[in-house]
Amino acid sequence: MNILLKTLAQICRTHKIQEKLLLCNTLSTGHQLLESLSKENVPWLNLRPVTPLELATEQAKPMLLTKNITIPTEGQLLFLLEEILQQMRANSQLQYFAELHNQNSLTRVLYPTIKELRLTGITASQLNESSFVDPCKGQEIITVLTLWEEKLSSLNWADAATIYNIALQTKTNSSPYYLIPEDLDLSPLELTFVKHLTSHKQIILPQDPVLNHSHSHTFTTPQPTPQSPLSWLFDPQNSPQPPELTILRAYGQTNEIRQVLRHLQQENIPLDNAVVCHTSTKYIPLILTITASQNIPVTFAEGIPLGFTRPGRFTLQLIRWIEERYTSLILHQLMTSGDMRLTSATTQARLLRQANIGWERSRYIPCTESLHQSILQKATAATNEGNDPYAQYLHQQAEHVSTLKQTLTQIFSRIPDATDGNVSFPKLCRGISQTTSTYARISSPTDGLALAAIQDTLTEAAHAFSGTLPLREALRRLHQVLDTLHTAASPPKPGHLHITGLNQAAFTHRPVTFMVGLDANFPGSGLQDPVLLDQEREQIHPELSLLTHEPAKRQYRLARYLSSRRGQIILSYPSYDTVEGRHTSPAAILLQAHRLQTNNPTADYSALQESLTTPAGFLAPSPDQFTTLEEWWLTTTLKNLSAHNINTVTACYPHIASGLEAHQHRAGTDFTPYDGRVDPDLDRDPRISQTLTLSATQFENLANCPFGYFLRYVLRIQPPEDAEYDPGTWLDPLTRGSLLHDIYCTYLRQTHNPDNPQPPNKQTLLSIAEDLINQTKQTLPPPSDMVFEHEKEELLRGLEVFWRVEESAQTKPAFFEVPFGFGQQEAEEAGLGLSEPVTVTLSDGKEIRIRGRIDRIDYGTAENLYQVWDFKTGSTYGYEEQAVFKQGRQIQHALYAFAAEAILKQSGTDHNAKVEASGYLFPTDKGEGQRFARLQANRHQILELLSQGLDIVATGTFCATDDQNRCTFCDFKIVCRHPQASIQAKEKKEHPDLDAWRGLEDYE
């Protein structure tokens, strides 16, 4: 036992039946001390831990009841301060702290200072602006404190300072023994109360001393005789014997924690015999992640961050969904995360994506209903065609859509709608709480505790403010109470490894102590308080703590903690920062420990480094010391401890065997299935299969990258098309281009209608644009009115280029948006077109069927001559006057020329129609109104090019492109291992099976 436990044991024996109250900062630490007594077989009859505030509340209780005074929660006090700051801002009383308030962090920053001032016994009337370096700052703090006092009085609330002041005015009738640890951390007001209450029966509990270190104790006692060698940590030359401790280092914090687990395993130490004390809360999520992955039971004295629990992640993601205007992508992520409890979650998430909602709360139900109706129509069509299995499948999907709609309806019924930008804060809190309770997945006791903590916090928040707030402000307040919330705080438990911070560690006694995080960052730098500088603190009150003293206090606290340990002690530090990629030094206290251990008071850091073993890394020291299966594989394989490692791995993991085989083939010189070779299939060749139609885009994709074509058109892989909410962007390039096409076509059809032609009119163009832009706004809501107006102005300004192009055009427009191969209805609606695809005879006599939509057909320079144009709304990058086909990557102009002639002839419009030129028109700011015309003199080459390219499909040689510049905007870069696939394709380009691919290079 250490000195504290021995003293406490003696008191329990001396005052066996008398009431004894053990003062401690938290009840949890007090109970840990009593548990340690029990483990030493010491009975502690009539002894219970209490906190100073608990004693003060008990003392003040009669007066609190008489005056009907309420004790608010911590959350209510935070909201009270927020209300005060909002009031000051509204009254233009917030200038010095205005920027922090705009950053939504002032409440959290200011609250500890207000609390500290109050617990020092300072009132607003005692403060003076002259005590502050900036009078404006002083005035604002005085105003905050004044309003704090006034609101507490008007609400009849009592914060901790009020409770202590009331307790000091009352007398106590009970007379227990008050047991007070000499280093009990108390504020001035707490200390005054404790001395007032306990002066008649006060017993100070001495602790293991730290020699040769200046530190004043809260309560003074005669220094006990040191019993631990670590009491001489700062006086190594006088130590009677070296301590039994181990100093270790590790390659980063992650490996430092793994080193702890290896030590427990290697020494066969039960988990509940060990405690891990850390110097930074950054270790908490790290330890949680590592231990959870290995199913190691752990308790955390400080609890765990809310975001590491399923209900916590669900709640925070739900708030983010609301913040980002109900973006469907976020809800989709939530549905598929595993944190949301849903029947057929994957199916509902897929259907949510199909509903094409984008964002805005108001679109969810209509878009879901539209999807439901669309699926039912497809089901009816399938039934009429006799495809009953497909119809049955569609009816099942329709039922899932109904379930999705019910889910959405229930969620929206609980979360209030901020139609005017404002929301009832209590309703919002209750709605999020109810939604979390219904849909958050609970998979562990910790999740259950997290859910309870969320419910309590939101209930408390709802009671703290009962009014209406702007939605953004309401969500900010929710972040304020939830982002820093920890849950599942626990004392040590049997069978669990206990994790604690230094502040909570003193009364935890286990046979093995790990102290992690002792690098040069410890004990800290003593940065100034952002609210009260040390020079201001000295001016305000002599008993306000100075932050420049904090590093020394932390160092002493650690030394005191180590001196009170009995048993095995392991100190460690991360010797390398894996994030910043630099070596880190050990803390000064580790050097002191080394000096004490080696009995060498003059040892320096180099001596310490030389004494340490190799830093623990990602590999275990040997295969029998692994903590995870991955660690065993790494250690066994990379240390080359077995000659048949690969055979062992592939025997256990067939997928790895397949991967290694693929890697071997790709690295070779042959063109294999792992490079894109598939068995020839006539059904894939449009020249053979009468059911296949080809579009210009399809062939251009084939010529750009055969492997990309294979993924998109053979395997039919499509990237998800999610409309992501971007507060600064409304239309993506594809939607913007489609809108401009609609504007061009509508205007040209109206002004060049053969039945009712109208003269060109810029106002007509702008009016059409206004209508179509507003229609797009209804189907795809902009993130804000400002963004909408900005992009609308850009669109209208871009039409100036289109207008100038039309004014200077040498040809007369004739037909617009001419479809071929999309059915009779679309052809009739367009006024000109073919319901069936156009047949093109290739140079070898074979035929292909093509389909598409021609943006524009103009009358040519003579009778029966025509020109075909395709609108491009981007830049002219990649288009050149001399490069006609670009190795097959630009063939639309040629295919559409064939199609236009066929349409004009077969429709009876012009039986002698001939296209004299086709090309691309860029009527936008980016395109600067340029035209790229392709004359038809080399028309025969496109027929050869098509045959050459389709030979790739026929032979099944879908290699990746060898030109990495073509991969910039590819959707499949991850799938094809970019850029490695292009590098390997370049090495295999001369393979005889790739003749068809190489042949495309002849068509520039």
From TrEMBL:
Q: What InterPro entries would the database entry show?
A: P-loop_NTPase, PDDEXK-like_dom_sf, PDDEXK_AddAB-type
**GO MF terms, alphabetically ordered:** ATP binding; DNA binding; exonuclease activity; helicase activity
UniProt cross-references to SUPFAM superfamilies, sorted A to Z: P-loop containing nucleoside triphosphate hydrolases
GO-annotated biological processes: DNA recombination; DNA repair
What Pfam families does the record point to? PDDEXK_1 (PF12705)
User: What keywords tag this UniProt record?
Assistant: ATP-binding, DNA damage, DNA repair, DNA-binding, Exonuclease, Helicase, Hydrolase, Nuclease, Nucleotide-binding
Q: Which positions fall inside the PD-(D/E)XK endonuclease-like domain? A: 693-977
Tell me what this protein is called. ATP-dependent nuclease subunit B-like protein
Which species is this UniProt entry from? Answer: Dethiobacter alkaliphilus AHT 1
